[in-house]
Amino acid sequence: MPTDSQQQHRGRGYGNRGRRGSDRRGGPARNQPQKQQEPQNRGDQVSVEGLMRDIRSRIGGREGPSLSEQEAQRLAARCLESILDVRSINPALMEQLRKSVVGDRSAQANKRRMEPPYQFDDKALYNSHRGWMRAIRRLLNPVLKLFLNPDPIVQALQAQSALNLEVARRETKRDQRQAEWNALHYEILQRLVIEVSSVSVEARAVGPLVESLGAKVDFNERRVQSIEGLQHQSEVSALPPPPASSQSVRPAQDRPTAATGSDAGSVGPDGTRRRRRRRRGRRSSGPEVTPSDSTVLNADPQAPGDPEKSADGQAVKPQGISAGDASDGASNRTRTAGGPSSLNPATDTEPVAVPTAETHGETLLVESPVKAVLAETVPPEPIEALVEAPVGKPLEAVTPAPVNVAAETPVETAGNVPVKIQTEAPVEVQAPPATASPVPPPRPMEPGRDEQ
Amino acid sequence: MKLGIVVQRYGADVSGGAELHARQVAEHLARHAEVKVLTTCARDYITWRNEFPAGEDSVHGVAVERFPVSRERSPREFGRRSEVVFRRPHSIDAELAWLESEGPVSPKLLARLAGAGAEFDYLILFSVRYHHAYHGARAVPGRAVLVPTAERDPSVGLGIFGPVFRGVRAIMYNSPEERALVRSVSGNQGTPGRVVGVGVELDRAADPERFRQRFGIDRPFVLYVGRIDENKGCRELFDHFRTYAASTDRCPLLVLIGTPVMDIPHDPNIRHLGHVSDQDKFDALSATSVLVMPSYYESLSMVVLEAWAARRPVLVNADCDVLLGQCLRSNGGLYYRDTAEFCGALDLLLGQTEVAAALGQKGRDYCERHYAWPAVETQYMDMFTQLDADRAPAAMEPLPGWLARRRRSQPPARDVVDAAPAGPVLEREVTHR
């Protein structure tokens, strides 16, 4: 409802919006605050209606907006209707319920108005509002009894009167009970709908909070990973240079690590204790591979939900693909932590399987930045040496092409161990020049300043 | 010019709005014409018991002729008949029976009126709802000038009064609201009529200090003057006032002047003075801060006019159209519909003395324009002059025949009045002609 000032504003034409008075361009009065309108109730300007308006506005200010019962009912009904979902709840049902409540109340009022019920006594037959008529009837009553006996009629009517009374009483009680039930049902339903509505609103408010917390968890994961990568890089640089490439592609079964069922997650091949990383719950259903100090990333034997884990936490079977497994054509696929479903398209640091000299054909999951991880894990020899060119095809024709890891293009290492690179986004692995100079060490990610 | 004033009771000590109105009109018109008052011997308006001696008398220099009442009023019978005619469909005969039970029935007075012939130029009949006024107007319709003093009560809707409103020579109304009501229920637009009311003494000497000293009142007070009766809204007045007293630390006194017909609550802030002299009343009016008038039904509140004459603001019940209209037209008082408005209005009138004084002055101005005695006398005399110039109308509509009078053809009088337009007449300056 527009206010008075709005109405006045609307009433003015477009061309009349500016002030036309003497103070149009400003003046002494322009910057003065407008005086509050004085009530026109001083001296000769007294106005009873103005005074009463003031009094009523003061009363209204003290008491707040007062709603009549009808207004409150209308507001309550409107609230309920706006909350109800008409697709799932029949609106006619609510209307019927509401009508029944209102109807029962009015019926109650009618019943109350109808009381006292019809009554009949033995003098009712001869009653009249005229006294003389009553007297004549009384006088002629013996004459009437000569013709008929009115006593049975009187008794029957008296009995009927008593029955009427009893029936009316019973019906009133039944209606009252029904009205109470209806009112109770209506009240319960209304409260229920309001509760459901408030819960849904609350759930809607909680949604963004969950997403925000998820983003924080992702961030923390990436941060932990980058720190681990930094530590790994420093340790790798401290190690003596790796042996010949033939050693680096040694079959996995020669190694006493994950393929032999040792605790890959606890002690590395060099005897150092491996660091475990707790992954997010949704990724913890499968084995987890993290870069370790020896760059061998094995499945996390303590991943929850691992059916092949013993009670004491020892990995019964390694989750990574061993060299023996790799010969199996059916399993000639890269397993990633948590399986394909664990890949989160929202994150840009998804694990990438990278063949290294020490993985022995296992699929490695390395999180981005890919180049940084590759720089750590790629052996000194150029990557071209690891990539087996198709027969009859020059190497150059293969290596420059981008490796679409999402398509799970099989890439075989020089040791005939199939290694796959798997990631969601296509990752271009730039083939180094033929001189195969060592990849420069990546710039470590600053803690607290990652992709965000 | 010879004028007869016919009223149900008359006397210097007879209280009551219509009776006082008649006495004041008689005394002031006596300056312009020869006036004789024709009345009954009754003093009590409930029983109409004959208390004054029948025959000639004189009150304040005005000749009075009293006639005995033939039967006293039975409140029980009157109540029963009122129930019939006000709430149920009924016959003309039932209405006439109601009028008989209402009284005062004085066959000798009616015979005197019928036999007066050319003794009086005009007979001014007060209070149409009483037996003497109805039958007097029927007896001498060509000379009857009616002062109906009609309130918005169901009796105005009775069918027997329609021919009277349409058949008298003229009607002197007390307020525009009364005129609107009578015209609505009777359709008497052709009958000459004026809104005259009653005059007030504007320059009556009054001493507020005398009143304070005499009654030992040393703080501001609110005044009520009139019969202390539930029908006058006094119960609501007490409730509202006690609520206000509980909500403020500058509670005034409520001073009551008049005869109580209900219990007055025992409250240190309420003081009842009983019946006081006119001088004390005017002293009280000049000493009070506010005059309060809680009545629901008024045709004209004389005490409100007297308060305005004393330059005092009033606080009236807004459910009474006449009082509300008076306040709105005069700007001389505030009104209330509930406790909150009563408290707010009273707080303003007591707290803002300049506003209260301005309201009182407005009321005074309004009285000077419309209710000064010279203006009222002029209105009456102008009306008589106008009637002299006009031709007398045909005889009043006769009563229906014997059978028609007994047919239940009349609707409940309350329904008739309820259907009439309500509310104050809002023109600032009502044409009093």
Features:
heterodimer; A: mainly alpha; two-stranded antiparallel ribbon; 11 helices; 1% strand; elongated; disordered C terminus; B: 433 residues; eight-stranded mixed β-sheet; six-stranded parallel β-sheet; globular
Description:
The complex is a heterodimer of chains A (452) and B (433). Chain A is mainly alpha-helical and 452 residues long. Chain A is 43% helix and 1% strand. Chain A has 11 helices and 2 strands; from the N terminus they run H-H-H-H-H-H-H-H-H-H-H-E-E. Chain A has helices spanning 4-11, 48-63, 69-83, 91-114, 131-147, 151-238, 245-248, 323-327, 370-377, 383-386, 395-398; strands spanning 410-412, 418-420. The longest helix of chain A has 88 residues, at 151-238. The radius of gyration of chain A is 46 Å and the shape is elongated. Chain B is globular, with a radius of gyration of 22 Å. Chain B is built from 17 helices and 14 strands. Chain B has an 8-stranded mixed beta sheet with strand order 3-4-2-1-5-6-7-8, with helices on both faces. In chain B, strand 1 (2-6), helix 1 (17-29) and strand 2 form a beta-alpha-beta unit. In chain B, helix 11 (302-309) packs across helix 14. Chain B has 433 residues and is α/β, with parallel strands linked by helices. Classes of the chains: A mainly alpha (452), B alpha/beta (433). At the A-B interface, helix 2 of A face strand 14, helix 13 and helix 14 of B.
